[in-house]
């Protein structure tokens, strides 16, 4: 069987990305994003991309690099703050944004990965989110029909993987990654640590290797904090003392 391991992010995307593709990318804000794969996506120069994910990075970080390189034509996301380029291009009509409530976006991706073409949700009924969509009443309540989402390529970030592609995510970095790993026709996983088959506890595997086509071990992680918020120290508190 051909190895799933690639030496770097660029080679993992070689021959995979082309103009006009739909790309899903894992992460919540900048937590659990495939940083190296995103930069490799920028280097492909592929244009007119549709990008699906929680957001599009923030200024100078994450998917922002692909956006700033004029490669994205449409975004499906639930949060678009912290990104001045996206704001400017949306307001000028240069880029299309399909806004989704966060839970709805997660379920659309999960549904797409499960082969479910559409589902009904109460979220968004009676708002702009429901405009142009089918609505239906169940047990006296109104629901909006949302469609499942899939992608040509899914980019995900995991903490550990074995050489067969079984993935383990770490804490909140799991976020959208497991759903996105099921919804791509081709899935490329960026990981921090690679182990041999049998070294992962089967009960701790979050994404089975059957979903993963290519693996790359990333490096030089930024661990950037989008907005640092700290507590005001009490007057006279000693340094290093919790207050």
TrEMBL record:
This protein's UniProt keywords: Transferase
Provenance organism: Hydrocarboniphaga effusa AP103
Cross-referenced NCBIfam families: pcaI_scoA_fam (TIGR02429)
Pfam families from the UniProt entry: CoA_trans (PF01144)
GO molecular function annotation: CoA-transferase activity
Protein name, per record: 3-oxoadipate CoA-transferase subunit alpha
Lineage: Bacteria, Pseudomonadati, Pseudomonadota, Gammaproteobacteria, Nevskiales
InterPro entries: 3-oxoacid_CoA-transf_A, CoA_trans_fam_I, NagB/RpiA_transferase-like
